[in-house]
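ok new one. same drill as before - C-alpha cells go in, u give me an amino acid for every spot. 305 of them this time. try not to just spam alanines like last time pls lmao
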C-alpha cells in the first residue's frame, strides 16, 4: 500500500486492536494483514477511494476474484471472508463507516470440493504395498498406513503419536489434534497387528539413541528421529506409486476413513467425534461423496421410496 493511501490508518488501527486488545498471535495477525493487503489492492485498483466508499458489490467482486483469478481453495476464501467481515465490523463500531458493506457476504459453500477418496479396493492395495522387498522399514510404513486409515489421522497426528498414546490391550489411540484437542479412537485388528509387529521387530532397532531424542514417539525414521510431516507425505506417496495408484496424499487416507464409515452406515456425529472436528458442518462434506449410498438409504428406510 502507498504511504498516503486512505486505507493505511484504518488497517493499522484494526491490526493494533487485534494485537493489543484481542491478544492474537503473531501468525494470526500476519494472516489478517495479508488478507487485507489483497483486499485493499483490489479496491484501490477499482478506484474505490476509501473504506467508506466500499460497496457490497465491490467486496463480492474481490471474493470472486480469489476463486476465479487466484485459484484459492474454499477454506482459504472462508478465511478471507472472516477477515473482511471483522474488519468492516470494527470500522463500523469505531464510526469510520456508517454501514457495514460486508454484512451481506455469503460463505461460498457451493465452492467446496468433494475430498479425494480412495475406494476400498484401492485402499487395500495401498495398505498391501509395503513389503520386505522394499527394505527394513517396510514394517514401519505398514504400521503408519494402517493407523492413518484405521483412525482417520492427519499427517501431523500420526507423526506425533507416542508409545503412551497407543493402548494395545484395549485397542485404542489417544490422538492430539488441532488446537491441542484430544480424542480417543478405536483401532481395528489389522492396524493392531501391523503396529505390534513393528514395535516388536523394528522399533527397538531404530531407537538406538540413549539420550531420549526419539521422545518416545511410536513411529521413527531410519535415524531414530520422530517422523516429520514431510516424511509422512513421502512414505504415502512412495507406497502409492508402488501400488500403481498415482497421486495419493496423506489426507486422502483420512477422507477415505470418514467416507467408508458413512457408506457403511455410521452416524455423522460419531464420525465427527472420530475425526476430531469441532463442528459437525466440517464433517458434512463427506455426505456428498457417495450419492449411491444416500439413494440406498432412501430406498431401504423411506415409507414411500
Amino acid at each position: 500500500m502507498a504511504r498516503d493511501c486512505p486505507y493505511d490508518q484504518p488497517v493499522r488501527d484494526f491490526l493494533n486492536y487485534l494485537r493489543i486488545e484481542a491478544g492474537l498471535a503473531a501468525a494470526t495477525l500476519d494472516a489478517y494483514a495479508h488478507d487485507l493487503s489483497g483486499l485493499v489492492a483490489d479496491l484501490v485498483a477499482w478506484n474505490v477511494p476509501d473504506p467508506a466508499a466500499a460497496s457490497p458489490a465491490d467486496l463480492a467482486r474481490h471474493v470472486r476474484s480469489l476463486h476465479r483469478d487466484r485459484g484459492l481453495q474454499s477454506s482459504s476464501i472462508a478465511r478471507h471472508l472472516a477477515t473482511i467481515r471483522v474488519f468492516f465490523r470494527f470500522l463500523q463500531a469505531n464510526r469510520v463507516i456508517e454501514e457495514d458493506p460486508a454484512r451481506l457476504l455469503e460463505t461460498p459453500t457451493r465452492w467446496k470440493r468433494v475430498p479425494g477418496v480412495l475406494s476400498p479396493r484401492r485402499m487395500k492395495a495401498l495398505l498391501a504395498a509395503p513389503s520386505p522387498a522394499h527394505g527394513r522399514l517396510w514394517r514401519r510404513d505398514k504400521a503408519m498406513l494402517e493407523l492413518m486409515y484405521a483412525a482417520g489421522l492427519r499427517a501431523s497426528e500420526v507423526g506425533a503419536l507416542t508409545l503412551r498414546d497407543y493402548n494395545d490391550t484395549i485397542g485404542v489411540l489417544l490422538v492430539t489434534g488441532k488446537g491441542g484437542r484430544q480424542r480417543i479412537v478405536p483401532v481395528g485388528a489389522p492396524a493392531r497387528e501391523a503396529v505390534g509387529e513393528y514395535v516388536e521387530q523394528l522399533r527397538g532397532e531404530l531407537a538406538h539413541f540413549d539420550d531420549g531424542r526419539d521422545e518416545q514417539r511410536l513411529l521413527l525414521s531410519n535415524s531414530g528421529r520422530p517422523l516429520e510431516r514431510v516424511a509422512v507425505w513421502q512414505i504415502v506417496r512412495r507406497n502409492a506409486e508402488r501400488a500403481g495408484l498415482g497421486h495419493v496424499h496423506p489426507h486422502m487416507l483420512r477422507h477415505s476413513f470418514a467416507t467408508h464409515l458413512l457408506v457403511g452406515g455410521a452416524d455423522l456425529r460419531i464420525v465427527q467425534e472420530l475425526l476430531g472436528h469441532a463442528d459437525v458442518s466440517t464433517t458434512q462434506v463427506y455426505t456428498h461423496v457417495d450419492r449411491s449410498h444416500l439413494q440406498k438409504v432412501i430406498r431401504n428406510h423411506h415409507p414411500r421410496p
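Residues 17 and 257 are 42 Å apart (CA to CA). and btw The first strand starts at residue 166 and ends at 167.
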